[in-house]
Write a structure and sequence with these properties.
Keywords: Ligase. It is built from 14 helices and 21 strands. The chain is of the alpha/beta class and 456 residues long. The structure holds zinc ion.
């Protein structure tokens, strides 16, 4: 794996940092000069753009944005300027080339993926690199099975087309059968979807198409939006079923791109865009919001900063995405840049007896029991998070075979093993409710891990 920009690819680590610093200082000035929102935010935190002379000065300054600030900015622009892109829009609304929103699973969607034509062009190289490493390029069709509409992943469509790839963008809301009929008709070289949809289709392909998943003939599967490919059992299961490599990718604000490399073992998502975002080198403690120095294995909440974006740039945006950053060269491909593994969402974090627990981490531990469990789970909440009255309750889905055996042997042995693993890895001893295979509903877009048993 290499960096998306060839000029950056020839730079040393020091030269990359110097480039980032130069771009950052220019970008701060640009945002300050072109947006009332940024002038106001700098004043509110008591910093002048001239106070920031280095990356370290910037990492030490207070957070300028988060989801809440972004929503306030949107409400303000809707009120004062008649559009919902946000008061941090630094160009005229007429210059917007594409817009897409977050899914809105945590509230009102935000137009975080709003790009001018230069911003959009800057996505071409990373997108071409991502599919290119799997041998996908000009003339290939790609089944694009994300939620059709104004959602974040739609910003990947123009760069894919620019790479000569023909996306077959099917609406996942049409259901598994419709997705698979399109796959059978268009014979795609690769497919893009969430990992939970890739898992779900393993069972549906024989029913709908009458053949095995590997007979789709896919050469690669690209997944996004959930922890999945980072779990060894999930990666192995999907690769085995489809007979192709699974690539895990992340594209926050459509300005940074991380993608896993072509390797049996998972080495995290390689961030190939140091010239467009400081991600993932700006980390904070999710609670104190103090900067966390990035050493190999550092964990913190990722802070996003646009280095070149002109239309709707973000500066020091606390994302809520908690990641682990590895800085040692990748053991498989030798990539020397940072690699990220998703740990969870800071707003998903639970506190059980003073211990911080992420549902994504629970899912990772539970997935190791793939002989007996499907990996589908819910974390039951009896009161608003993050505080949980122990014991934490988990609903775990048992596969058909283990369910058959429950009558004779019971599930107490399995319960003890799962509890022991969760205690060893995460210091929690949950209460477990068993659910029969298929008992927990699957969402085709993003599957919620919480089951609320309280009213807001
Ligand atoms: Zn690698």
């Amino acid at each position: 794996m290499r960096y998306a920009n060839q000029a950056v690819d020839r730079m040393s680590a020091d030269e990359i940092r110097e480039m980032q610093q130069r771009l950052l200082l220019r970008q701060i000035r640009y945002c300050y000069d072109n947006s009332d929102f940024y002038r106001q935010r700098f004043a509110e935190v008591g910093v002048e753009p001239g106070d920031i002379r280095s990356l370290d000065d910037f990492y030490r300054m207070p957070i300028l944005m988060d989801k809440e600030q972004e929503r306030l900015s949107q409400a303000r622009s809707l009120r004062e300027e008649g559009h919902a892109f946000g008061a941090h829009l630094c160009s005229s609304p007429e210059d917007i080339a594409i817009t897409a929103t977050t899914s809105g699973t945590t509230g009102l969607p935000t137009f975080s993926y709003t790009l001018g034509s230069d911003d959009l062009t800057r996505l071409h190289a990373p997108a071409a690199l991502m599919v290119g490493q799997a041998g996908i390029g000009r003339g290939d069709r790609v089944l694009f099975a994300h939620a059709l509409g104004v959602y974040a992943t739609s910003t990947l469509l123009p760069p894919l087309r620019a790479a000569g790839v023909l996306p077959i963008d099917v609406d996942v809301r049409g259901g598994a059968e419709s997705i698979l009929r399109f796959a059978a008709m268009t014979r795609p070289a690769a497919a893009m979807m969430t990992p939970s949809l890739a898992l779900h289709l393993i069972d549906r392909i024989p029913e709908v198409l009458g053949h095995a998943p590997r007979d789709l003939g896919l050469r690669a599967l690209f997944v996004v939006g959930e922890v999945g490919a980072g779990i060894p059992e999930v990666k192995h299961r999907i690769e085995e079923a489809y007979g192709c490599r699974l690539y895990d990718w992340i594209g926050p604000f459509a300005q940074a791109l991380g993608v896993s490399c072509d390797s049996d073992e998972y080495h995290g998502m390689h961030v190939v865009t140091p010239d467009t975002d400081l991600y993932p080198m700006d980390l904070i403690d999710p609670e104190t919001r103090e900067h966390v120095p990035v050493v190999d294995g550092a964990i913190g909440e990722a802070v996003y900063t646009s280095l070149q974006r002109k239309t709707l740039p973000i500066l020091r945006y606390a994302s809520g995405d908690v990641v682990r950053v590895n800085t040692a060269p990748c053991g498989a491909c030798g990539f020397t840049g940072p690699r990220v593994t998703v740990v969870g969402r800071s707003d998903d974090m639970l506190i059980v007896k003073g211990v911080n627990v992420y549902p994504a981490a629970i899912k990772r531990v539970v997935s190791a029991f793939d002989l007996e469990l499907t990996g589908e789970l819910r974390v039951v909440l009896d009161r608003p998070p993050p505080l949980v009255e122990p014991p934490l309750t988990l609903r775990l889905e048992v596969n058909a075979e283990a369910w058959e055996r429950r009558g004779t042997e019971g599930l107490s042995g399995l319960e003890r093993r799962v509890q022991r693993a969760l205690h060893e890895e995460l210091r929690i001893t949950p209460r477990i409710e068993w659910v029969q295979q298929g008992g927990l509903p699957r969402a085709l877009a993003k599957t919620a891990l919480f089951e609320k048993r309280y009213t807001d």
